[in-house]
Design a protein that fits this description.
By secondary structure, this protein is α+β, with helices and mostly antiparallel strands. Helices cover 46% and strands 26% of the residues. It contains nine helices and 18 strands. The protein has helices at 2-18, 20-44, 53-95, 101-110, 340-366, 372-392, 399-420, 426-448, 453-490; strands spanning 115-118, 121-134, 144-153, 159-170, 173-175, 178-180, 182-194, 201-208, 217-223, 226-227, 233-235, 238-245, 250-262, 264-268, 278-284, 303-306, 313-319, 328-331. The strands form four sheets. Strands 10-9-13-7-4-15-17-16 form an eight-stranded mixed beta sheet, with no helix packed on it. A five-stranded antiparallel beta sheet has the order 3-2-8-12-11, with no helix packed on it. Strands 1-14-18 form a three-stranded mixed beta sheet, with no helix packed on it. α5 runs antiparallel to α8 (426-448) and α8 (426-448) runs antiparallel to α9 (453-490). The protein is elongated, with a radius of gyration of 38 Å. The two termini are 59 Å apart.
Length: 493
């Protein structure tokens, strides 16, 4: 018994730490049930001729024990049904839109990883062979002559103009039960270069590929209109072309390929140099302006235009005589996941259910309905079952809307109708209305509008508090009227 009580108190403490408002209402409801159970136990007890102190203590202990057992039963039921609701949400998430890092990594290895495209790097230099004379500390030994290559780089900027065109089309990938943002690209990069030196030089054209573990199709590389791809060396995801440069020679370099990746596409000029006559055109045929997002460290586009089909947009990044380390690119928006609406609503059903249970237990106890605790248990169990069926039938009845219309709403309306059959009191009809609002409206609006979940909870809690205060005031007023009537009736004529 001690371990059970400690476990229940631990769960109550956890609830108070996470949802203090709901814990307060539940505490008030359980206190009302406890006091009502003690009072009913005393009123139903038969008068006894024994008036000893031990017998009185025994009777009081018996009344308290019955009330404590009733409250313990309620707390245990709450714990069990909370576990049921959490298992319902967990099982639904396991098979609907469960985004995990492991599956995301698998998508990257199968489809392609995030692409971070760096700008072409140009090394212009001359190598000079020099001879070093190294004198020995022992003067009797001859000096040592050693030859080495000394590189003299040209620090002037060889870039004259840059034109890049990238077409990025979304291609979502599914892994497990979730979709991940994938895309396909058609990239065309073009540079006009000029040897800034008036003497012959050597040159290395270094083009880093955007991802080490990706697929590159239709790869082409030309220099002044001539195919140079067979002459390029591929090492560490980098294409390198070494050649000789004539004084003031102009170069027209073009590289193109098709590829694919996930999450975002990013371009950056990593070298510290002046960016001249630069234009990057990023065409997104199926991503409208309203859904645009940019990776961290990216500049905003110079211009955004809709595509001819009005289904996407064209981003233009234009720089001239600029120095910048900021990148350019786009991040794909989050994809709608299977069962997204149902998952969002189910995520709020636990709080809605706890608030409903507290409202039922407290209101029925205040209204002095017979077997208020048992009725609260039955209605609470039926409501939890309705939420469970919402997750179970979501895939069978046209998604969330169909399941809500055919399963959830009819079940909760039937329960509200049964509530009105308990008594003809207007308070119970108001309770049925509150039951529908908290049971149906609250989890739907809070789940589908996550930015205002606390607001909706506070509104429902405020309505519950006002409704309870109204019931208490009405109850006290009726009791005062009854006592006045009794006192008038007992007065002698």
């Amino acid at each position: 018994m001690k371990s059970i009580l400690l476990k229940l108190s631990g769960r109550a403490g956890d609830l108070a730490g996470v949802e203090p408002l709901i814990a307060l209402f539940l505490g008030a409801a359980l206190l009302a049930v406890f006091l009502s159970a003690v009072r009913q136990s005393k009123s139903h007890a038969e008068p006894s001729a024994k008036s000893s102190l031990l017998w009185t203590l025994y009777e009081n202990f018996s009344h308290l024990s019955k009330a404590v057992m009733l409250v313990a039963l309620l707390v245990a039921t709450i714990s069990i049904l909370r576990i049921y609701l959490r298992e319902t949400v967990s099982n639904f998430q396991q098979t609907h839109g469960r985004v995990t890092q492991a599956n995301y990594n698998a998508v990257k290895t199968i489809w392609g990883s995030e692409q971070e495209q760096a700008e072409l790097k140009v090394e212009i230099y001359t190598d000079e062979e020099v001879t070093e004379r190294i004198e020995s500390e022992d003067l009797t030994k001859p000096a040592v002559l050693r030859k080495k290559i000394v590189r003299h780089p040209v620090t002037a900027n060889p870039f004259v103009a840059t034109r890049h065109d990238v077409v990025l089309k979304q291609n979502p990938r599914k892994k497990g039960s979730a979709y991940y943002g994938g895309y396909e690209t058609i990239c065309q990069f073009s540079w006009k270069l000029n040897n800034p030196a008036a003497t012959p030089q050597k040159c290395n054209l270094i083009f880093p590929l955007p991802a080490a573990r990706s697929m590159y199709d239709d790869l082409a590389a030309t220099l002044n209109g001539r195919d140079v791809l067979p002459q390029m060396q591929l090492k560490d995801a980098t294409l390198t072309l070494a050649r000789d440069l004539q004084p003031n020679e102009a170069l027209d370099v073009k590289i193109s390929f098709k590829s694919r990746g996930v999450s975002f596409w990013y371009f950056q000029v990593r070298e510290s140099r002046e960016i001249r006559d630069f234009l990057l055109t990023l065409t997104l045929p199926d991503l409208p302006k309203a859904r645009l997002n940019y990776p961290g460290g990216c500049m905003t586009p110079t211009d955004i235009r809709p595509t001819s089909s009005a289904q996407g947009c064209v981003l233009t990044f234009r720089l001239d005589h600029a120095i910048s380390s900021q990148g350019m690119g786009v991040a794909l928006p989050s994809l709608p996941q299977p069962g997204e609406m149902t998952n969002a609503v189910l995520g709020e059903t636990e709080r809605a259910w706890l608030l409903l249970f507290a409202m039922l237990a407290l209101t029925l106890t205040i209204a002095q309905i017979s077997h208020a605790a048992l009725i609260s248990l039955l209605f609470g169990t039926a409501t939890a079952l309705a939420y469970g069926l919402l997750g179970d039938f979501s895939d069978l009845l046209f998604g969330f809307v169909g399941t809500a219309v055919l399963i959830l709403i009819p079940l909760l309306f039937a329960l509200a109708k049964l509530l009105t059959r308990l008594t003809t009191d207007a308070a119970i009809k108001a309770l049925a209305l509150q039951f529908l609002i908290i049971g149906i409206v609250y989890p739907c609006v809070a789940g589908l509008d996550p930015g205002r979940q606390t607001l909706y909870l506070n509104i429902c809690a405020g309505g519950f508090l006002g409704f309870t205060a109204w019931m208490l005031a009405a109850r006290l007023r009726n009791r005062s009227v009854e006592q006045s009537s009794v006192s008038v009736a007992t007065q002698p004529d």
